[in-house]
TrEMBL record, chain A:
<feature type="region of interest" description="Disordered">
    <location>
        <begin position="1"/>
        <end position="25"/>
    </location>
</feature>
<dbReference type="GO" id="GO:0008270">
    <property type="term" value="F:zinc ion binding"/>
</dbReference>
<dbReference type="InterPro" id="IPR001841">
    <property type="entry name" value="Znf_RING"/>
</dbReference>
<dbReference type="GO" id="GO:0016567">
    <property type="term" value="P:protein ubiquitination"/>
</dbReference>
<keyword id="KW-0863">Zinc-finger</keyword>
<keyword id="KW-0479">Metal-binding</keyword>
<dbReference type="GO" id="GO:0061630">
    <property type="term" value="F:ubiquitin protein ligase activity"/>
</dbReference>
<feature type="region of interest" description="Disordered">
    <location>
        <begin position="177"/>
        <end position="200"/>
    </location>
</feature>
<keyword id="KW-0862">Zinc</keyword>
From TrEMBL, chain B:
<dbReference type="GO" id="GO:0005524">
    <property type="term" value="F:ATP binding"/>
</dbReference>
<dbReference type="InterPro" id="IPR023313">
    <property type="entry name" value="UBQ-conjugating_AS"/>
</dbReference>
<feature type="domain" description="UBC core">
    <location>
        <begin position="4"/>
        <end position="150"/>
    </location>
</feature>
<dbReference type="Pfam" id="PF00179">
    <property type="entry name" value="UQ_con"/>
</dbReference>
<keyword id="KW-0808">Transferase</keyword>
<feature type="active site" description="Glycyl thioester intermediate">
    <location>
        <position position="88"/>
    </location>
</feature>
<comment type="similarity">
    <text>Belongs to the ubiquitin-conjugating enzyme family.</text>
</comment>
<keyword id="KW-0067">ATP-binding</keyword>
<keyword id="KW-0547">Nucleotide-binding</keyword>
Length: 200, 153
């Protein structure tokens, strides 16, 4: 660092000495990358689903980062209320890490492709998409799908897709569209047993 | 406001003005059509009767995939509403569905005023009082309604 500054005749910046405002969150975001399969993201490993421990790790990483902010060796004494808030955040994150949410729950792209389409002739004037509120026939090329729930509720494909990618339920009757995925637990192997957060 | 407002929000806003829900109003800000000033009347027969409660409502960018953000601005003594006005209501959290609307959510909030649920508390102190001495809790709720939620003219 000093070499660069000497070569360029730069005075050392005073702010270098100040503590970081925030802890480094790159570890957290890297971990999150492994588990976030929402939206257009594709799972990055061959197993389609993130391991619960990866999700736990994401939560734990963030909790650690908050914990660091909390006990900052403090030029700025954190006020009591923010300290309390961070304490609560850490607590709830660790809680989530203990009981990781059941992975990303939404339906697959294949599932969406296979949804039953409603042909234009079957659409009535008074039928509208419950999500965008627009009449299906307002669109000259309506792309409407029926969910396999009991009410066979119909939606614009474009409207229902983001919802069921994250929540596999019918917005109208909350019926579950897919059964809970039962993933066989990964075969236990030596290294898994010795999993250590330090090297996670 | 760079992004154009989704048609759904425009429609919902129009319908709120043209066919208002009795005892509820929601007006968008001129400079931010996703931010609403909300007014909810305390339901008749409840300890909030006669009160007019102000709330703020914000539609996030991903609305209606996520629930609106709603908060009481008027102070209220209620086991499911905390000091900051945050509301503990299932349809605002896990039970949100994109088929719900601003008007249905506001009706749910009005119903929550009529039926406090101390078993699922957000405000521990109030919920404790509600369970241990309901008469006293209801009396306090009435007093707060008169004190904070009565229109000043």
């Amino acid at each position: 660092m000093s070499g660069y500054e000497v070569e360029h005749g730069i005075q050392p910046q005073p702010q270098d000495q100040q503590p970081r405002r925030r802890p480094d969150l790159t570890t957290f975001f890297a971990t999150l990358d492994h588990v976030d399969t929402s939206g257009a993201r594709q799972p990055q490993n061959t197993h389609a689903l993130p391991m619960p421990r990866d999700i736990s790790a994401a939560f734990r990483n963030l909790a650690n980062a908050y914990e660091m902010m909390r006990s900052s060796d403090g030029h700025v004494e954190p006020s009591d209320s923010s300290d309390e808030l961070l304490g609560r955040l850490v607590e709830s994150l660790m809680e989530s890490a203990e009981h990781p949410p059941p992975e990303v729950q939404g339906v697959s792209d294949e599932y969406i492709e296979q949804l039953e389409r409603v042909p234009k002739k079957k659409l009535r004037e008074n039928m509208s998409c419950p999500i965008c509120g627009n009449a299906f026939l307002e669109d000259s090329h309506p792309l409407v799908v029926k969910l396999p729930c009991q009410g066979e509720h119909a939606f614009d494909l474009e409207c229902i897709q983001p919802w069921i990618k994250l929540n596999p339920t019918c917005p109208m009757d909350r019926q579950q569209l897919i059964k809970k995925k039962t993933v066989p637990p990964p075969p236990p192997d030596e290294e898994d047993g010795e999993y250590d957060e330090m090297f996670g | 406001m760079a992004a154009p407002l989704p048609k759904r929000i425009i429609k919902e806003t129009e319908r709120l003005q043209n066919e208002p829900v009795p005892g509820i109003s929601a007006l968008p800000h001129d400079d931010n059509a996703r931010y609403f000033d909300v007014m909810v009347e305390g339901p008749g027969g409840s300890c909030y009767e006669g009160g007019v409660f102000n709330l703020e409502l914000f539609l996030p960018d991903d609305y209606p995939m996520t629930a609106p953000k709603i908060r009481f601005l008027t102070r209220i003594y209620h086991p499911n509403i905390d000091r900051l006005g945050r509301i503990c209501l299932d349809v605002l959290k896990n039970n949100w569905s994109p088929a719900l609307q601003i008007r249905t959510i506001l009706l749910s909030i009005q119903a929550l005023l009529g039926a406090p649920n101390p078993e699922d508390p957000l405000n521990e102190a109030v919920a404790k009082q509600w369970k241990e001495n309901q008469a006293e809790a209801i009396k306090t709720a009435r007093e707060w309604t008169a004190l904070y939620a009565t229109a000043k003219k």
